[in-house]
Amino acid sequence: MENFTAYNPTQLHFGKNVADTLGETALAYGKKVLLMYGKGSVQRNGIYDKIVKQLKSVHAEIIEYNGIKPNPLVDDVSEAAQIGKLNNIDLIVAVGGGSVIDSAKITALAIANNTDPWAIMKYKFKPKTTIPLIAVLTLAATGTEMNGAAVLQNHETGEKIGYVSSLNYPKHSFLDPEFTFSVPKNYTAYGVVDLIAHSLEAYFGEGDASLSDRFVEAIVKEAMEYGPLVLKEPENYDYRANIMWAATTALNGLTSYGRKNGDWGVHDIGHNISYLYDTAHGATLSIAYIAWLKLQKDRIPARIKKLGNQLFGTNSVDETIVNLETFFKSIDCPVRLSDIKIGKEKQEEITQQMLKNQIDGMAHKLSDDDRKQIVELMM
Amino acid sequence: MENFTAYNPTQLHFGKNVADTLGETALAYGKKVLLMYGKGSVQRNGIYDKIVKQLKSVHAEIIEYNGIKPNPLVDDVSEAAQIGKLNNIDLIVAVGGGSVIDSAKITALAIANNTDPWAIMKYKFKPKTTIPLIAVLTLAATGTEMNGAAVLQNHETGEKIGYVSSLNYPKHSFLDPEFTFSVPKNYTAYGVVDLIAHSLEAYFGEGDASLSDRFVEAIVKEAMEYGPLVLKEPENYDYRANIMWAATTALNGLTSYGRKNGDWGVHDIGHNISYLYDTAHGATLSIAYIAWLKLQKDRIPARIKKLGNQLFGTNSVDETIVNLETFFKSIDCPVRLSDIKIGKEKQEEITQQMLKNQIDGMAHKLSDDDRKQIVELMM
Prior knowledge:
Two copies of one chain form a homodimer. By secondary structure, chain A is an alpha/beta fold.
């Protein structure tokens, strides 16, 4: 087992009506709030009203930025940071899924350090401080509510990349499973894929971490049991709660303690597809994971077998991959680019993107030949 | 799933030589250190020297209290608190297992609030503040290194009881698996029992928490795989590391999120046996858990079956209990009081102790008849 520090500074409030104390919680950090959210769903489903009511109950001054898109853009973060700086805000309250909360993390850093958000994302500027962030989660998927990661894309440089810092942890996160009742079926399923992919990115890292392996297996089993159920009953509280908590634990440290690293090659592949075609993150992962496993199956058979044994009771590498593919299909997630109407005519463009950005894993390095093969396997 | 807050303020440093930064870490809290430890083993195995060297490297002033016994006494805590107050200490560094760290937690509260430690333990005085605590763990067992619990006994009142407070979390805990290499076989095995018992106390609480159930199953499987191995190879780093991390996760919140409560009846029984005969905590738990399961088997068969199915692949309640008993025996832990030379002649005394203190669980309440039956089942 590798050395590690187990520490997570986020206070995560989980359950029915937990956001009813958000006002008091926010007040501890100040009164000038930058309220960040996305493109309208939180207004339609009433969550926006609840949060504004909370902030008004403590007489907070609310400055809004509501331009955040799925596959969030650094341009929006720059704009939000400008508004935040101009208004001298005390804290950010972010209401949404991974895109909104990730954007808020980098906005907070850009404001506090008065710097260009992309310089932060590229690790060219090392932030020393940040502005407090309170997250209200409306989509169970990325785990951003309890970790230090953020992903943004930049159309100028042609990249979608991740950035990790201990400054990025939200001070508080509010997770009410009822806030996810209105998430459409496809995004609910993509969230299930995302949390499985996060667990597996840890699993396919380097180093022996027996208990962390068991936690991965536990989380993936939970996702495979309750994912299909929540798709059948989107307003079942317990199903939504089980998936929401599983998504948090999939990327809050638990699955990684004692490992040298994770892999994250599949995420790198997925981000580049999202960059090209604005594909939903989860949809890229179900496609990329199957391709990646096929590429790696003769290189890491023992590891894939261990997973297959735990998840599916099989000792066959091929069966493990087929079973995972079958599961993704069963929740209507794509397993080939053709499933999302990206045909052979795009193969060259995708290959060039993968080669240009040298997509790679941390544990399992990819050659240019691997990059080409992965694209072939995804078609 | 019940509402919960997931937050653990302890910074836990795990791995080889992690205590090499203890000096710098301690310095952040001040220079006057109350160094608490037990009855000599940390001096014999060199850990004491390492910690003192660390503290001296940052010119800390060290005041020592080394009177802590296994099954720790409130009298020792009172004495340590007196010394701490007299010397106006800034922080406590506790080097040892559960007894030392638990004692240090209550010593810190007694100093900071200038009050009687037993009044704290009995919840008669509500502490508002505490003194920073840094823990150096030398025994994988209780989980105290990353939680808010402490257990003490009092010979005046005839009790051994637990106290839980959010003030009790150590600021930092240092867990070097090598620090447990010299733990004797019997105490290593008792630690394995203790961590299994903690996991099961959560499991037999009330409320549906599917992922927390899976985490319990993962931790208990880890203990059952690596417990026997570490007994065979006490200086195998990875085996020691796996057991040490399993013991932390068994009682740092992870197994309880989403439940209404745990049970803790077995611990109450065990504490009262330890009180009477100074029996090692873990040794009381392997005895008490088997008896408790036999008492409960017709009341909660589905729950016991679920556990048995996961751990032993059986759907039989009786087989589950027999298999757990067999496991405890396989690591030389007692499963009857007669195994630790407590015979029939003590049955009345034990029964009276259980009745007097009204031993009870939180989820599964015990009647006086149950208390008598449990003692009968333990004989």
